[in-house]
Amino acid sequence: MLFSEATTTSFFSLAPWLVFAPVIGLLINIIIGGRFSEKLIGAVASVASGATFIVSLLLAYSVWVGHGQGESIFLAEWIHVGSLSLDWTFRVDSLSTTMMLVVSGVGTLIHIYAIGYMHEDVRFKNDPSRFRRFFVFLNLFIAAMMILVSGDSYLMLFVGWEGVGLCSFLLIGFWFEMDTLARPSWANSNAAKKAFIVNRIGDLGFLIAGFLMFWYLGSLQFDEVFAAAPELADTQPGIIIAITLFLLVGVAGKSAQIPLFVWLPDAMAGPTPVSALIHAATMVTAGVYLIARSAPLYNLVEGAQSVVVIVGAATALFAATIAVGQYDIKKVLAYSTISQLGFMVAAVGMGAYVAGIFHLVTHAFFKALLFLSAGSVILGLERGHHLLAHAHNGGAADHDDEEEVRRTEPAEVFDPGDMRNMGGIRKTMPVTFWLYMIGSLALVGIIPFAGFWSKDEILLDASLKYPAVYWLLSTAAFFTAFYMGRQIWMVFFGTARHEAAANAQESPKIMTVPLMVLAGLSILGGLLNLPFKGFHNLGHWLEFTLGEVELLGLDPTVAGLSTLLALAAIFISWLLYGRVTLKQADRDPLKKPLGFVFTGMENKWFVDEAYKAMIVDRYTDVCRFLADVIDSRFWHDWFHEKLIVGTYNWFSNTGLNYYADQKIIDAFANGLGRTTKYLSASVRRIQNGFVRSYALSVFLGVVLILGYLILK
Amino acid sequence: MSPELILFLVLSLVAIAAAIGMLISPNPVYSALFLVINFSTVAVFYLILGAPFIAMAQITIYAGAIMVLFLFVIMLLGAEKLAPGKVLPYQKPLAIGLAIVLMVESVYAVLARNPSDAEIIVPTEAANSIDAMRDLGIMLFSDYLLPFEVTSILLLVAMIGAIVLTKRAKGEQE
Amino acid sequence: MPPINFNDIEVLLPLIILVIWACLLLLVDLFIPKKHKWLTALLAAFGLALTLGFTLSQLGSESNGFCATGKPSICMVVLDGFSVLVNALLLLTGLLGVALAYGYLKRMGIERGEYYTLMLFSISGMMLMAQASDLIIVFLALELLSLPLYVLSAFARSNSDSQEAGLKYFLLGAFSSGFILYGIALVYGATGSTSLSQIFEIASVGTSSLLLTIGAALILVGLGFKVAAVPFHMWTPDVYQGAPTPVTAFMTAGAKIAGFAALLRVFGSAFPNLSEDITPILWALSAATMIVGNLLAIAQTNIKRMLAYSSIAHTGYILMAFVPYGNPEVAPVSIAAGLFYLFAYTITNFGAWGVVIALEQKESKGLQISDYAGLRRKYPVLAGAMTVFMFSLIGFPPTLGMVGKFYLFRAVLSGGYTGLAIIGVVTSLVSAFYYLRVVVNMYMFAGEPKTDNEFWLRFTIAGAALVTVVFSLVPQGLFAWASRAVLKLF
Amino acid sequence: MIPLSWYLILSAALFSIGLFGVMARRNAIAILLGIELMFNAVNINLVAFWRYLDPTIMNGQVFAIIVFAVAAAEVAVGLALVISVYRNRKTVVVDDLDLLKW
After folding, report:
1. How many helices (H) and strands (E) does chain D have?
2. Residues whose CB is less than 8 angstroms from the CB of residue B44 and which lie 6 or more positions away in sequence, other chains included
3. What are A560-600's pLDDT values in tens digits?
């Protein structure tokens, strides 16, 4: 019925299918997917995602036909209490359709790629059900993301926000039981937990912002909030600042900005398509979308905007320096993502919403391309390694004793993601090489690739509004070019540093074809918004939602300088990494000239350590104080000796081992939980099983209450 | 000092002494017997207050039926001898302290009643006790019919419960 | 003097039918052979359904029953929208309780017909509680609902845990009855009446008296004990762990609903003037309950005990709704939110206990959280349902728990109790830790859980999971019902 | 005539003693005795209030009678539970009943 209602000019009524399509897809896979072949499962999921893309296209078309007139599509009542009424309503306007197109478009390509990628995973693990699970999660993610971008109120946005967070958690921990020497299984589930906990901090900020909005503005619906905000800004500007800054906390959590970015690098523990889709192209940009969506609020308070810009720019530079010191191919890309997100946040912070969204779109193209190509490289290396293992076993091993092979081989710890194991892959995996080159050039910002145009627009805006930020971002861009150069030389040029790299094999068509599409988009993406009169397509498009925007031309100085910086950085990287092929055991050539600075980069500037020292350990101390002084001294003399034994054991085992054995990540993710748990474990000793003590507790309550009433 | 007052004080002392006796005698048989004394004294209070029916009920139900049931079970289980068990050293002092605090609080609450509380009527001479008892009966079967019926259900439930807990099914071994 | 008029019977009709049904069931059960006890269960369920029908037919009618001769305003029981809603919820609890119990009793070898009879009596006590408008009836209803629960807790006669639970529950329950009785006596002394409406009238003239306040506080203690509020909660984990699991499931929901219904009746209609004194106490109880319940749940390894602490924690959340009870501006929305939360909790809770029952083995085996490892692999539907329940208990969308918490926090905030709301939000974040542990166990660790295929149990679990999700998407109707039900009380 | 408060204080004293009994005794039956004393103390309150408030309305007395019945019902169930526990554990000492804790 929904279809018949759609007239030739307006497809708005199709909006709910944005969510229905992936949900139907995942339901099919859950219910009858057990009997499907791998291909069919992948096809169902991809078709579901593709359907979302088509719906997005139709919606975008409707907006375009209606001259940018968006529409809100009511689906059902949700919550009506007192003055608050919230519904399941989809908001279709130029901003949300842009996000829909990016998410569903890139999402569909990644679905297809994942069919090939996960096929290998399944083969390695002998568990077909995980294939199905993976695609169910992916579809769930698409559905949640669609709710996020199409929500008509902050609450609906929050539902999607939590939904994608859940999918992210599930998918980071997807390999929770995969135990290899290079990466033990607990590292995967800990990475998932870390992401979840850090994101909770951000979500708390979002929640507080939501409560404030409801409290002072009386609504959570976008239009109502924006309509009521100017008046509040006149009377109580502090509240608007608080709202925007608390929203920024949420953004920092989801979009991995300082100080909450620590989860994103660890999130690379998930399968590569996940890293590409969720942790590079779509979910992490939700924060940028949130700020762009809340533009009417941010425009009211300049102070908050400056904070956003500073956070973004600082993140951009900080993460870029860390990326220089990483050895894992995906970690480099992860820090690069953080850095690029910093660019976007800085852009939307300074009011250059078009530039921010433009960069979001092009970044989605080329970063997805880079991640997926990196995945292809990793799989290529694994295939090569696999081949070697068979060769060592006399080449007779069957696929049946896959597990056998895995168990016998760990004599040598092989990490297929370590760039020090690579080199010369240009020859063994030519297609991947060229795709990777395109992605890198787009990221580095070489004319005429997509990244050049979008990054340049951000830099131009910055040079006009915040000169200091312009220099920060330019430095970040320099580092970007440097680490990408370093990566390209180390991975693809020179000679192989490991047998596996020498024997790497090209990936199948199902993986490379989506990559080619992404590569095409990375080359041509700049056409969306060329800085020439008449070509500001995206600018005009978004104007419908964001109001009048300033359309800038090309500034030859800014463009020239940034290109020059990029080329210089690539040249330096060639001097260091490209001129001579490194040996596997070689120290990084940057280590000598930079010394401890490089050690800092290598170790992520010790942020994890600092968090442990400043937050986790202090929290532990407080808990320990409560446990030790209050609990142990106070209760123990009255209660059981067990407490002494327990505390003693805890100190000797947990306490000491804690420092000796545990990894920092582990401490961060578990510290909160474990100490709360300990606190809880000691308090529960009061529950000693004696009826009389329980009666005493009741009695104590009575006496206290009566005392309060009498003395009051 | 009026004889009424002296009677009240003596009875109070007996009642409290019996209660304390119940508290401190280690043998539950003695405890139960002390409680019987206490209940009987309280029945005299009811008489003084002009509620002869309640006094009778107190003697027959409480002191008679319930306490006999107690004694019966104590004897049945041989529960008068307790093996030394775990002790909770903090429990007693804390309980005493709290009980005294509660006592003080209640006394304060009683004495601090302000005049706006429901009017205290200077007690008239107790009505003819036969009439009073008839009034009670009428009350029980008119205004208080529902509580009366619910009480009967409550007793039925207690009966079922006691049987369920203690009756052995056929063939069930101890 | 006509002793009874038909209006009185009409007001209590569902209750009377249920009691008569229970008595008949007791007799009929004697003639049902041991092998066919399913018939008793079926008859009990049928009686509950019948009563539910009669209850729903009372929707919209309002009247008083068993009034004093010549004084039609002083009545023993009342029938209004609130009582109908609560009674319907209680009967639903009963139906779910029977569905969970049948297979379990058989499997554990403790199947006896009296189980269902006692349950029906307990429910009638709860229903009476919801309709009471006199303190005597409140007290009697409390006893009527408690006595069968004491016995049911000790129903597994060969199981030491169950026996211990029964005795502990009884001793502490009787102890707390002592307090409530003392409180009622003081209130009677301060006002000369036990009728709620009359107490309100007398208390609203003149200044508040300490005797009345203390009496009210003692009643609060007694009811706080029933709903397991800190610091009157200590019996809860022991009893919930030791009692046969279906009894626990029934207690967590039924006793809580009845306790809160009485709390609302007594404090809402008799003591709104005392709110200045009582509200801070409720505030403190609610805060302490949320904190202690959630904190102690973290350390538990036994799932029954964990859920027991979770039940304490949820008492704290619901109690939050009662904090602004004396403020007629906020109270209706807030109490309606509390009722909605009670519904959400009942459904979710029964589902979660259902899964516990499904996995429990003889001699208290299969009750560790670690026993849930590998559930996803062997029984994916069961694991999925449990995940839904855990998410609902955390308050994660899209579940009833999330909608309930939303209503609740919103009401509390609009009452101006920001501190309480913050405690609520923070403790629910903390609670994610222990609920998710169950999920992690089910999904991420390997293990060999065992369960029998019991149709009614599976049916209940699946139904509860479905309702938990579906009603979270369309909660409006229910909330509107709850709002209508409480509107007349203020 | 004896003032009302004297009765109330006597009742409070007996209630507190009963309460203390619940918390200090280890024998389940003795604890039950303490609870009975508490109920009894409340009854003194009820009857005294009845007498001093308005002796023509019998509601205090009716309440007292109902409390008797409730106390009897509680004792029946309580003693049955004690017997049942005794059969299982051969003890009536509540402190021994600590399988369930923490």
Report:
1. 3, 0
2. B11, B55
3. 888 888 899 888 888 888 777 777 666 777 777 777 777 77
Q: What is the pLDDT of residue C240?
A: 93
Contacts of C260 (CB under 8 A, 6+ apart): C227, C318, C322, C338, C342
Q: Which two tokens stand for residue A628?
A: 């030790």
Q: Which of residues 6-45 of D touch B (CB under 8 A)?
A: 6-10, 12-21, 23-27, 29-30, 32-34, 36-37, 40, 43-44
* C237 lies in some domain: no
In a domain, D48, yes or no: yes
Identify the closest residue of chain C to A218 by CA–CA distance.
C414
Q: Which residues between 581 and 640 in chain A have a beta carbon less than 8 angstroms from any beta carbon of chain B? A: 638
Nearest Cα residue to C214 out of D23, D7, A711 = A711
Q: What is residue C59's three-state secondary structure?
A: coil
pLDDT tens readout for residues A372-421: 899 888 888 888 877 777 766 554 444 444 444 444 444 456 777 788 88
- For the cut 80, the answer to whether the pLDDT of residue C23 exceeds it is yes
**C134 belongs to a structural domain:** no
d(CA A431, CA A307): 43
Under an 8 A CB cutoff, do D95 and B166 touch?
no
Which H helix or E strand runs over A429?
Answer: none
In this predicted complex, what is the ipTM? 0.84
Q: How far is residue A703 from each of residues A324, A707, C178, measured CA to CA in Å?
A: 65, 6, 14
The answer to whether D94 contacts A690, with C-beta atoms less than 8 Å apart, is yes
Q: What tens digit of pLDDT does each residue of B27-85 get? A: 888 889 999 999 999 999 998 888 888 998 999 888 888 888 888 888 888 766 665 55
- pLDDT for position B128: 54
pTM for this structure? Answer: 0.67
Residue A357 CA to residue A97 CA, distance in Å, equals 12
DSSP one-letter code for A269: G
Q: Is residue C138 part of a domain?
A: no
Put simply, the answer to whether A690 touches D98 (Cβ < 8 Å) is yes
Report if residue C89 sits inside a domain: no
Closest CA to C174 of B159, D73, D100, B163: D73
Q: C63-68 and A84-92: which strand pairing?
A: unpaired
Q: Structural domain of residue D28, as residue ranges?
A: 4-91
- Domain span at residue C463 reads 274-490
* Chain segment C305-344, per-residue pLDDT in tens: 999 999 999 999 999 999 988 888 888 889 999 999 999 9
Domain ranges of chain A: 605-711
Domain at D8, CATH number: 1.10.287.3510
**Partner D contacted by B3 (CB < 8 A):** no
Total of domains in chain D: 1
* pLDDT at residue A49 in the model: 92
**Could you give the number of structural domains in chain C?**
1
Query: Chain B partners of D38 at a C-beta cutoff of 8 Å?
Result: none
Nearest 5°: CA angle at C371, between C369 and C375? 105
Q: Which of A312-321, C175-184, C291-300 has the lowest mean pLDDT?
A: C291-300
Amino acid symbol at B124? T
Q: Taking all residues of chain C, what is their mean pLDDT, rounded to a whole number?
A: 89
Angle A87-A88-A89 from CA coordinates, rounded to 5°: 95
Please identify among residues 105-144 of chain A the ones whose CB lies closer than 8 Å to any CB of chain C: none
Residues with Cβ within 8 Å of C480's Cβ and at least 6 positions away in sequence, in order, are none
Strand partners, A72: A91
Cβ–Cβ of A701/C410 closer than 8 Å?
Answer: no
Q: What is the pLDDT of residues A118-131, one digit of tens each?
A: 887 755 566 667 78
Q: How far is D74 from chain C (nearest CA, A)?
A: 7
Cβ neighbours of C2 (radius 10 Å): 7
- Please name the residues between 42 and 71 in chain D that touch chain B, using a CB distance below 8 Å: 43-44, 47-48, 50-56, 58-59, 61-62, 64-66, 68-71
